[in-house]
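It is worth pausing here to work through a concrete case rather than discussing structure prediction in the abstract. The textbook approach is simple: state the sequence, then state the predicted structure, then interpret. We follow exactly that order.
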Amino acid sequence: MASRAPRSPGGEMPFLEHLEELRWRLLWSAVAVGVGTMAGLVLVLNFGVLDLLIEPVRPYLDGGKPIFLNPATSFFVTLKLSLVVGILLGLPVVVYQAWAFFSPALNPSEKKVIVPSLYFGLVLFCAGVTLAYMWVLPLALRFLMGFQSDVLTAAIEVQEYLGFVTRLLLAFGLVFELPVVIMILSALGLVTPRFLAEKRRHAVAGVAVLSALLTPGDLASTIMMMGPMVILYEISIILSRIIHRRRRREREEAEERFRPSVDPPSGAVGSDTPA
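Step two, the predicted structure:
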């Protein structure tokens, strides 16, 4: 590994050193995703990841299995699933490398907010994926598979089905990151709770449009995405208020700490202390 010049106490580095550090951060992130993909291949082949994703649609297969139309489809489906699992497994390393690169430019109060936000974001992502898998996906399949079923016969093609499932699960996982994004923007001073509260109606309209675009199209799954997103937006406003108050309190404490004394020196006119 190439040597890198140490940062100055203020976290500053020459531009070329920044590029060198960024190159190594990206390299280690790629290595983490590659190792995670190899581990994902083992998981897909030996621990029933594909079977787990097929389980929600199994009641509509009449005891059969999903089909594939190309001899190479099953191979590439396995590789794609391994890559998705690898990205998820390597994500902590990628986040750490990004944090290590950007953190020297942040002040301590911003770090105190952003670090817990990253852990909170992992919990929210898992919650979003779980909600989608346990409730939204079955409802969406029930609606879609029952539509025009009297004149059409369903033939589930595995690649198309897995693309549909992974997009839905990842969409729910990502939209659940809304509070984390708001917390980080609030810590950086880019948004305020007053701004978020004033734009509430616009946010709800945007959430409705986004939910309609990301869900399969049935009303139930759209509402099941829209409801949590509206709740998460309100939680984001509360979190933004907490962060805003903390930043204001720290700023006032800093101003008080560095405020010069207003008492006149000893012996000066108006001083109570004799010379």
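Step three, interpretation. The radius of gyration is 26 Å. The CA atoms of residues 111 and 263 lie 37 Å apart.
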